[in-house]
Fold each of these.
Amino acid sequence: MTSIIYKIVPAPMWQEAVRRGSFDGAPVDLADGFIHFSTGAQVRETAAKHFTGQDDLLLVAVDGDALGAALRYEASRGGDLFPHLYGTLDPALSLWALPLPLGADGRHVFPELAA
């Protein structure tokens, strides 16, 4: 199983995190007390469920192993185990951040991902 996990983030929010050197999370993350991530197998459904029609998003890839014990896999949607980060994320730990554009059908167009 790959250790790469993904976060969908509004581009301005990520750019501010890079500038500050710390990503505390989106409003939903702050409300829940952890930063929500998805695996490669989960992220398309996450986009469809939580980001439908939104543009100016980035898909950020992170090596989950680099996050240590602060990363926990916990049951969520449909009983699937989702990666949750209990703490802040150093943007320097991201492997890449790529645009997540909307396609002609209104769905997000993803790069090739590790499942």
Amino acid sequence: MSSKKHVVFIVPDGVGIKNYLYSDVLKHVGEFAKITIWSPLPESAFAEVEALHPIELHYKALKLHSESILTRLFRESASYARLCYNAKTTQNDTILLNWRRPKGNFKLGLLYRVSETIGRWAKLKYSRILNLENRSKKHWSSSIIASYKTDLKDLEVDSIFITHQRVPGLMPICIAAKQLNIKTTTAIFSWDNLPKARLCVSTDVYILWSEWMKNDMDLFYPEIDNTQLKTVGTPQFEFYKQDNRITDRASFAKNHGLNPELKWVCFSGDDEYTSPYDPTYLNDVAEAISTLEEPVQLIFRRCPVDFTSRYDSVLEKYKDIIVSIDPIWYTASKAWVGYFSKLEDVDLQVNLAKHCEGVINLGSTMALDFATFNKPCLYLNYDTIKDENWSTNFIYKFHHFKSMKGLDAVGWLNSKSEIKDSIKAVLDKNVTVGSDRELWLEKLVCCPLEDSSKELANTLH
């Protein structure tokens, strides 16, 4: 009988496939443990993962259960209270923008209104917030918890890794695991998640990107003991340190209809909610490039979950300048949770950062991706029209951008008229744009980047 441990990776949606399963985490865990992927996604979704790693992977279908009314009521009430509490703690009202009432569903809208009423009472004392969260947990059906306990016993699990913390339906698994004394670990999905009250599971260990994120955890979740916090980085950036992923410039150009003799600049799009005026920004950037003395190609990479037609007119207008290279994602699912990056897209993103002179976007983590190759980012920082519900003035007040304080992390496009000269500065390597970009990356992500997978795997023993 094998003496190896059994580690179960719970992958609730496509996000975890790119960030963890394509990385070397599985390779390192496979050295000391049997691995099972437990997921609501079909087994076929992990075909590339299995082909990539020379280890045996097992699969089990996961059925996620809906919350009861009371479970969700207490959870949403606590979330609203946390947002209010966090906004007051940080003196930053943009945190409240993360509370959005659902539209078109009367019953759900009513639940949110009641949650707000309870949350306004709870925000006055932190102990009340914790009480609401505990009550939410207690209202999970005992039969659901019992069914997960049966699953965990059948699997003979030693350790569980949840690829991100944002899925409420995973809470009963955490409860079941705790009752069975099975170690649970989850990763915090992104640099901006902690102020948003999106910690939807309770685990024994929390995987963090950096000391910056640890400080955020201490600030927003002081009840979680420091011994539960492990700063190991995040494997999604290790791809940029793997030379075998890089295609030579001439071949990359041929594969994507680019001119290898010209310099390339990347415009990375956001989703429609984050940046509703993105097509206008793309138009402004293309217009500025069209007036440069030096011909430049603008590579447009849309947000992987935004395949709307909203950019079409701009792409047609500037077809001699813009080359659209779409993300290579599986998008057959009707819900975004079923979207996930194909392995080929990992290489595509690495080569964009390697071969482009820089990247332009609205507050995206693509700035960090490009910083891995010491390439600059220009952040769009002006409004195209007056909209009382949306402004870049909101965006850059978000808490996670405080990480830039004291650093020249990016270049700022404060008006349309600044785009041309800023791009010229990016092209002229003698002019420094965002000189502290590598320091900013090191502040947000533990370095060396290529150690993240091994460090994460060590926490799952």
